[in-house]
Amino acid sequence: MKKNPKKAYADAKKKVMNSAKKKLGKTYKGKSTKPGGGGRFKKMVDDLMKRGKSRKQAEAIAANAGRKKYGAEKFKEMSEKG
């Protein structure tokens, strides 16, 4: 039975989102883990890359998740900061 590509994408995204929800320290690779600090984004990108995504794909998925969570305007403000 073949897996639907959209379902595979959704499953991968769900796994990454769950790993990103794990308790983080105050910083991750020199970036703050508070919203807008860039540390959460960096961790999600790193987790996606561990799962075989390229940096470009990983950043696109993480940005999409951030826009969905915070909204386009707030996410844009946070990306300009961090």
Any descriptors?
single chain, 82 residues, mainly alpha, two-stranded antiparallel sheet, globular
Question: Topology of this structure?
Answer:
Elements: H1 5-20, E1 27-28, E2 31-32, H2 39-50, H3 55-70, H4 72-81
Antiparallel strand pairs: 1-2
The main sheet orders its strands as: 1-2
How far apart are the termini? 43 Å
Rg, Å, rounded: 13 Å
Sheet of most strands: 2 strands, antiparallel
What do these coordinates show?
This protein has 82 residues and is mainly alpha-helical. The chain has a domain at 29-82. Helices cover 66% and strands 5% of the residues. It is built from 4 helices and 2 strands. It has helices at 5-20, 39-50, 55-70, 72-81; strands at residues 27-28, 31-32. Strands 1-2 form a two-stranded antiparallel ribbon. Strand 1 (27-28) and strand 2 form a beta hairpin. The radius of gyration is 13 Å and the shape is globular. The mean pLDDT is 81.
Compact summary:
This protein has 82 residues and is mainly alpha-helical. The protein is built from 4 helices and 2 strands.
